[in-house]
Amino acid sequence: MQVSVIIINYNTFQLTCEAVESIIKHTHGVSYEIIVVDNASTECDPGLFAERFPSIKLVRNPDNSGFAKGNNLGIQHSTGETILLFNSDAACLNDALTLTYQELKAEANLGLTTARLEYPDGRIQHSCGRFPSINLQLVELLRLQKLMSAEQRGTILQGAFFTYDKPLYPDWVWGTYFHIKREVIEKMPGGHLADDFFMYAEDLQWSYTVRKLGYTIKYVPEAHVMHHFSQSTKKEKRLNQGNMILQNEDIFLNREYGWATTKAYYLTKMANFLLMRGNPEHRQQMLQQYGKLLRGKPL
């Protein structure tokens, strides 16, 4: 088996079915298995997945243990030489599995690949980024990016500065489509993906570990995947999600960078928000959040 696809389902039956159908429809160049891990959903009987797709492996998690632990549970039931973490709200638009698998096989030092992620209307999602960095914050603070060419900005700053129309070796990528060699996971602490975050920022931690192990990460623009990435989430829920992301990033930064560097990073972030143009409500909100993190206060 070349690719084991892990999909975590939590009350997203229809979306998960569409994700599975898209993989079956578009994947032709590799051998693969699909493992659906149901995280104690209450929406419907998870057995409906097995009825609809007899070829998949259904793993019933008795508890909703979160995204990372759910993926580790799925990996325990997998046999593939590579592991693809695939969001339940995503769908293949072409034979993405084959394209990213071929890249993993072509480069010995490549540990992780990802695809081009698009909104349903075709807009690009900025799924490749740089690790948090004081130097990069200072580049933006001093507006040094204005002295760079568009290509230099994309390569150096990544994120929203990158065009996503060519290959890139980013620092980290979203967990939406996370195609990783099994050998890399086996070299991680405990022989599994870090799972101390219930949800959010785990992909930052995983990518950081991949890089620490000496492997590279590659964005493959030919592999196209649609990702719903709900834009209709209520404001209060978006704020809670944002707080959870920042709180988990704070844990990551303090663990990997140390206390002093983390505080200095927050200061540069706040300076950037102070000079930011645009939505004053968002600017004030971010200043308050980073101010709390700087003082060691919970969000």
From TrEMBL:
Q: What CDD domains does the entry give? A: GT_2_like_c
What SUPFAM superfamilies does the record point to?
Nucleotide-diphospho-sugar transferases
InterPro entries the record matches: Glyco_trans_2-like, Nucleotide-diphossugar_trans
Looking at the record, the residues that make up the Glycosyltransferase 2-like domain are 4-119
Q: What is this protein called?
A: Glycosyltransferase family 2 protein
> In which organism is this protein found?
Hymenobacter lucidus
Q: What is the lineage of its organism?
A: Bacteria, Pseudomonadati, Bacteroidota, Cytophagia, Cytophagales
